[in-house]
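It is worth pausing here to work through a concrete case rather than discussing structure prediction in the abstract. The textbook approach is simple: state the sequence, then state the predicted structure, then interpret. We follow exactly that order.
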Amino acid sequence: MRPKELKAMNRELPGPGFWALIQPHTGVLSQAQPTARGFGSDLTAIIECEKGPFFVKAMRNRPGGRRASLIRERLINPAVQPISPTLLWHADDDEWLALGFDVVDARRSDFTPASPDLPGVVDLVDRLGDLPIPDIARDWPESRWDRFAVDETEAELFRGDALLHTDINPSNLILGERGRWIVDWSWPTRGAGFIDPACLVVQLIAAGHTPEAAEAWAAGCRAWADADSIAIDAFAAATRRMHRSRADRHPEATWLEAMAAAAGAWAVHRGVAEVPGQAMT
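Step two, the predicted structure:
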């Protein structure tokens, strides 16, 4: 099928120049089915083709954080393949950056309290904590929570030598009959190992768990079990401030308010925030 025919099938697809860019890797194209994509990509699609299929993730080649995130995802893939789909090829020109991944048969996970997915979710986050830090990631220190810490001493509690994903959510932890994977490595960093299990805690609370129950699930991760409670307290407080700041900047985004509420509930549970309407004693 010619690129212009693919374009005609679906208005969400890019133009002929993009298909010409990736065709050396795909061979003859037969079908492209866009998938639900996050904020960081201009295209995510399953590409049926002569050499595939492939899951293709692409964005416009423009300076900025989004471009840098796709480059990081390409660079980190060899280090995370035990728990992530394999990157099989990449291509770029003046207009586009594209990554071609192995296609895995999987669905997003369910974080709700009665979900049978929860043991597998915890296992994935625990296995993430076992991945060695690759040399490429040593220059990617985690700092996004720093400005929400009380001071630099508190921010130092978030430092470490663990490889972090930091976007733990149901869409990025996918489950199938033949395996479980963590996807969307848009901004891997190096930091304290408890951070990814802590991100899981907030997501579980947002999905309906009590803070106590969410932490009980996180306790299945060795990085959480080995962490200093003072560091977790500081991170909970910083996470509450981070999510509140985001929700206040975008009041139209109800999901941000839900995350702020979950982070707030966790901070109250840890004793580092006031119960709404009550003063801390």
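Step three, interpretation. The first strand starts at residue 29 and ends at 34. The mean pLDDT is 93.
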